[in-house]
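the two lines:
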Amino acid sequence: MSDVINTVWQRDMVFESDNPSGKKLTIDSSEEFGGTNSGLRPKALMLSSLAGCSGLDVVSLLNKMKEEIDDFKIVTSGELTEEHPKYYHKVKIDYHFYGKELNEKKIKKAVDLSIEKYCGVYEMFRQFAKMESEIHLHNK
Amino acid sequence: MSDVINTVWQRDMVFESDNPSGKKLTIDSSEEFGGTNSGLRPKALMLSSLAGCSGLDVVSLLNKMKEEIDDFKIVTSGELTEEHPKYYHKVKIDYHFYGKELNEKKIKKAVDLSIEKYCGVYEMFRQFAKMESEIHLHNK
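prediction for all of em together
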């Protein structure tokens, strides 16, 4: 199976990119690099991709385990190399769960399954970055 | 320098992710995986990231070279592995340029500089995928 994405230049530093969902997104650079900051910066989309991929796994797995959570937030931090080409060589994912009587064992199992088995984006990141992940439980 | 991205669960399979630009994007899965298709699929964001990163380099370099183009489109095709975790193991970038009297040498130089020197996302992809790129000139 293949994904094919069209990214079309609009003007200045603005591009429009499509997605298998049918939705589109606008890309632009900062004013420092000649853009008008009217769209998403492309490199950081990698960190959204990672969080979204793993987040969907975790929600899906917790649903199957009948584990209820009130809120869930993922913070992905990517440290860039100093020299060109600048890429994320160290990446940390912090998984924050909020709820009453959170089941640590089930939550850890869901996160581990995503990281170790299901999340294809995590697998790609593993090839270029030193990865670290941490689970934070916020019991109400 | 680090990029820090917050991705917050909204409901069902919907997440909202931020970006250094201040813009946000919505992530959702397809109905097949329990979502409502109301947002972008996360894995394919990797291909938008790649196209956007390289596209911004190329437009910036062509501007510096005073090379005028009418239109510019990037098609990124990613072939997924069949087994979990499913990741893009073969990726092709097709750069399509449209214009009058396109200067092949300048365009090739801009694309090569992006691929070989500037595009950090391309550098990350190189670590997990077999990469291929091709330039297509469409003279009017």
